[in-house]
Write a structure and sequence with these properties.
The complex is a heterodimer of chains A (364) and B (423). In chain A, helix 3 packs parallel to helix 11, helix 6 packs antiparallel against helix 12 and helix 8 packs across helix 9. Chain A is of the alpha/beta class and 364 residues long. About 5% of the residues of chain A have low confidence. Chain A has a six-stranded parallel sheet with strand order 2-1-3-4-5-13, sandwiched between helices. Chain A contains twelve helices and 14 strands. Chain B is built from 17 helices and no strands. The N and C termini of chain B lie far apart (71 Å). Classes of the chains: A alpha/beta (364), B mainly alpha (423). At the A-B interface, helix 1, strand 2 and helix 4 of A face helix 1, helix 2, helix 4, helix 6 and helix 13 of B.
């Protein structure tokens, strides 16, 4: 009878787990309250929702929308690689999401394919100039060269050594647009205030930049994750005479913060995408400012519009005028004189009297 | 009549089923490991879900509290595992809806289609790794081999142009060749210089990853008009078409038949072919193999060709059936099927059928985990935890035996799937 007793042990333990499983699988009715809720679903890129950068901002936007409208339930799926884009979108379609927010232009093709396959499904894609426009896809774009321009003025005005630097994660237009604006801002400052501040790390190509293409030569890490490389590049910039570095590389920028800490006072970092003094408060004293991208408010607006039924496909362009991009100050004190210079430039950009194309200014 | 024959105790055959079920047979151990995996998963859900914790915190607040806590616990754990099942196998209510209305069969078939899509490259690459393990060779470089296969297939698929009847086979063969090239290097190095294959294959992975970036950023292969690390799209004639047509939205492709053919080939190869016999003898006892005239050098090089070729095939099948391009992150990081393959081969005990089943299990957990996260907010990582725990228990049958008080199997104890370092 020993075997029967053993069998009992086995089956007892097994049924504990499998019982829960089968009973619950059998009862497949989804609770009624969930059906009437509006699901706001975010598919992140490989950075995940804790990248303290644009994936985090998109997720924060969905959560902010849920706070405003209690009927909205946010949920997210992280992509571990590009092979996850399509299945993640598909999973959310199966979940009956009211809107699917895809984060990053790398998901352009997957989003367009899914959007064209199901014209009733609403999509918003962050940071993408879509190749083909669809009625049910809203492309959220940000003219970050405007914010970068103000960042360039801030850096040029704050630099004691007369040299500032920037570098990017990868040579994407969404990255180089920031760098291009930054260079333009420094050149504008040099011309207007008769200064001689140099920029390392980005040489704009001829012609103007657009959201779809922004070419030039510069320093790139090759990814958005390698903080050691970020530290190496930044330390190199410091020894080349720069005292303010602007990393446009997501979490790689933490390597720059580490380099500034190592180099000590007098070295600072310009953060990118979302306010460094909020997302990384402990390092606030190393940030001279943040060139922010309005991912969170624009995602929030798209989700709320979809929940209300006022959603429209097409494009949204974030500018200084609509807070789609802006300059936020950090933990380092900025003289009020410089602040007013930046305010002047901001008004000029919004009015269209100041160009953010670096080729319009002489190299300082 | 005084028949005084003493009553004979019948031979103990009636309990054979019971004996088998409580014995330490590999299948029983695997199933119990699965049970343990889900059990630990349930504990993790309970300890990390705020709603469940809140319910238990209020345990002594009222008479109904304990019942409420148990209900909340079962609801949450149940919802998690239910969505895991409905997301990876089928959703009964959706299926019922499809049957009664005659509509929406696509939605009913989506979960199983996704599981098969996910499993296809896993089956192929794990079979290759399993064959190497059976020969006593650790192929830790299957991922690099798969990536190189993907690159070669991507190049052949996007830069050559010919009718499908030629193009698809050429693309697949290019992928196999790519994997073989990457596989034969550690093979030759081990056979002729004794360089340890674990070191060489691991390091070659990084060489291939760097080559991948180089390839997708090179003018010839990079997608025209793009500055980021993405390749040209493969011609439709080089793509593995979806099984149910391109309009159905079901992603499962003809690649699944390639995977099944690979399993069949592996079974024939290991159990029926003479080279396969040489492989297994070498794996079981290298000295005996040498003494009986099997050239260990030939076997080592051959096993790397087979294992690398299959890994390359997995890479090209992945590219040709799902993305239709390769990018800088192709099969790298968490998507590294070559590393998952090691655990799958272990779970499947290096046997083709076992590998087929474990690949399907891993795929179902991965796909179901996604639905679980989308529906309940419990992170997909739970699926990885369950996968890992299952493998952990399969690798340590003694633990399972102790937990469930199993008797020792009548046959030999569970054979260790692989030999030790340096064999």
């Amino acid at each position: 009878m020993g075997s029967i007793r053993r069998l009992g042990t086995v089956l007892g333990a097994a049924s504990l787990v499998l019982g829960t499983l089968t009973v619950s699988v059998a009862a497949t009715t989804v609770s009624a309250s969930a059906a009437t809720k509006f699901k706001a679903c975010v598919v992140t890129d490989t950075g995940g929702i804790n990248d303290k950068s644009f994936n985090a901002s998109a997720w924060a936007g969905a959560q902010a929308a849920a706070k405003q409208d209690k009927n909205i339930v946010p949920s997210y799926l992280s992509s571990t690689s590009s092979t996850d884009y399509a299945p993640n979108i598909k999973t959310f379609e199966g979940e009956g999401c009211g809107i699917i927010v895809t984060v990053g232009f790398l998901m352009d093709a997957s989003t367009a394919a899914a959007g064209n396959a199901d014209l009733t499904q609403k999509f918003a894609i962050v940071d993408d100039a879509p190749v083909t426009k669809s009625k049910n896809v809203l492309a959220l774009q940000y003219e970050t060269d405007q914010g970068g321009f103000l960042g360039g003025i801030l850096a040029a005005g704050m630099s004691k050594t007369g040299t500032v630097a920037t570098y990017g994660g990868e040579n994407f237009s969404s990255v180089t647009l920031y760098m291009n604006g930054f260079v333009a801002g420094v050149r504008y400052y040099d011309k207007k205030y008769n200064a001689k501040v140099k920029v390392l790390g980005w040489k704009p190509a001829k012609g103007a930049c657009s959201l779809a293409a922004c070419n030039g030569k510069g320093t790139f890490v090759g990814n958005f994750t390698d903080q050691t490389a970020g530290k190496t590049i930044t330390t190199g910039d410091f020894s080349a005479g720069a005292d303010i570095v602007f990393p446009v590389a997501g979490s790689v920028g933490f390597g720059s913060v580490a380099a500034a800490q190592q180099a000590g006072a007098g070295h600072s970092i310009m953060w990118v995408d979302s306010n460094g003094c909020v997302s990384d408060a402990t390092d606030c004293k190393w940030f001279v400012g943040t060139v922010a991208k309005g991912v969170q408010p624009s995602v929030e607006a798209a989700v709320l519009a979809a929940a209300k039924g006022t959603f429209k496909g097409g494009t949204y362009v974030g500018t200084l005028a609509n807070n789609g991009t802006q300059l936020e100050y950090g933990g380092i004190k900025v003289p009020s004189k410089l602040k007013s210079k930046i305010a002047t430039a901001k008004a000029g950009i919004i009015a269209g009297t100041i160009s953010v194309n670096p080729n319009k200014y002489p190299i300082g | 009549m005084t028949d005084t024959t003493p009553s004979v105790t019948p031979p103990k055959t009636r309990h054979t089923a019971l004996v088998w079920m409580t014995s330490q047979s590999p299948i029983v151990v695997t199933v119990l490991a699965l049970v343990l995996g889900f059990f630990v998963g349930a504990i993790i859900i309970i300890t990390t879900t705020p709603a469940v914790l809140d319910a238990w915190r209020g345990l002594f607040h009222s008479w109904g509290a304990p019942g409420h806590a148990i209900k909340v616990t079962l609801d949450n754990v149940g919802a998690a595992y239910r969505s895991m099942f409905t997301g990876s196998v089928f959703d009964p209510s959706q299926l019922w809806h499809s049957i009664t209305t005659g509509k929406g069969f696509d939605a009913s078939l989506t979960p199983i289609s996704e599981t098969l899509t996910y499993a296809t490259p896993l089956i192929i690459v794990s079979t290759g790794v399993g064959i190497a393990f059976q020969t006593g060779i650790f192929n830790i470089g299957a991922n690099g081999q798969a990536v190189l296969g993907g690159i070669a297939g991507g190049v052949a698929g996007s830069m050559l142009h010919m009718p499908m009847i030629l193009h698809l086979p050429v693309t697949l063969i290019a992928g196999i060749a790519g994997g073989m090239v990457c596989g034969v290097i550690p093979g030759v190095l081990k056979a002729f210089t004794g360089a340890h294959e674990v070191i060489v294959t691991i390091m070659l992975n990084y060489v291939v990853y760097a080559f991948l970036l180089f390839a997708v950023l090179s003018t010839a292969f990079q997608r025209p008009g793009q500055s980021n690390d993405i390749s040209r799209t493969m011609d439709p004639s080089a793509q593995l078409p979806p099984l149910f047509g391109s309009t159905s939205g079901l992603r499962v492709s003809y690649g699944i038949f390639i995977a099944l053919a690979v399993v069949l080939f592996a079974w024939w190869f290991l159990d029926r072919s003479s080279i396969g016999f040489d492989f297994r003898v070498t794996g079981a006892n290298p000295s005996a193999a040498r003494a009986s005239g099997i050239s260990s050098r030939t076997v080592i090089v051959l096993v790397f060709l087979v294992s690398g070729g299959l890994a390359g095939l997995a890479g090209v099948v992945q590219a040709a059936s799902t993305t239709h391009y390769v990018d800088g992150g192709f099969l790298i990081g968490n998507a590294g099927i070559g590393f998952t393959a090691i655990t799958i081969a272990l779970l499947g005990r290096n046997r083709p059928m076992g590998i087929l089943l474990s690949s399907l299990l891993f795929a179902a957990l991965g796909v179901g985990g996604r639905t679980m996260q989308a529906a309940t907010g419990i992170p997909l990582d739970l699926a990885t935890v369950i996968q890992s725990i299952v493998v952990l228990f399969v690798a340590t049958p003694v633990l399972v035996k102790e937990i469930f008080r199993l008797r020792a199997a009548k046959t030999q104890a569970v054979q260790l799937a692989t030999q030790g370092w340096g064999s």
